[in-house]
Write a structure and sequence with these properties.
The protein is an alpha/beta fold and 281 residues long. It is built from seven helices and ten strands.
Amino acid sequence: MAIPPSNGSTTVPHEKRRIELRGETVILLADIGNTHTVFGLSSGKKILGSWRFSTGRYETEDELYTHLHPLLEREGITLDSVEEFVVASVVPSVNECMERFARRYLKNGVIWVKASNVLPVKWDIVSLDQLGSDRVANVLAAWKEHGNNAIIVDFGTAITIDVLFQGTFRGGAILPGFMTSIYGLFRNTAKLPMVDLKFPRSPVGRDTDENLRVGIVLGTVRAIDGLIEDIFSFYGTDDMKVICTGGQAPLAMEGSRFLSFYDPYLTLKGMIVYFELVRKS
């Protein structure tokens, strides 16, 4: 996910001003991840505001309305202004709630982000159905903003690495996210504690907390750097833009050799690209 993590729902600091609409199509975006859902508002191909929820906070369309409506209202926006609703979801159990919310509170139904052979990016993978819609959005945003060759690293519950080469999505890798690894050790061991996520001060931990940070944070970043280096070697070029997104990306950037470009809105941008392409097709 693309906004720094928080508890509950929040608006990022620079978005506390009231949003002004300028006659363009107003799109409500929902990037539904396993841990968090990021809602965004777009008009004229620009992200006007974004809000983060815990994905488990809502189970019905009315609960979603009670959470989302006040945040939009604070910015001077009503749901009546929303003309389209674009959703990228990796949580099937939430999808029906999105459908009911659109039917009850919005003008039009849901536009679901998914890989398709009608898109300008080609998909050289075994099954389009297995590709997460957030990864589709990330690839489309990278293609639109950075061209035909890119590596996208998204730090969420899972860390995904996506490879776009010569305008074709070639596949990638999936690793456990930082918090997923920490929770896994905490739940399945008797004495290992939960620790704050920090980049370790050295590669040798001198207490249990620092040992965990070395193994989980530094170890994961080294694995990502190694995979990126292997991808360069595999395709015979390092002329590929490396883009990272997701709440934990800034932490990884502290010690990475390759992660230097951070776009917190990459997924939401890709959802807008998807909408524009679908509307033209």
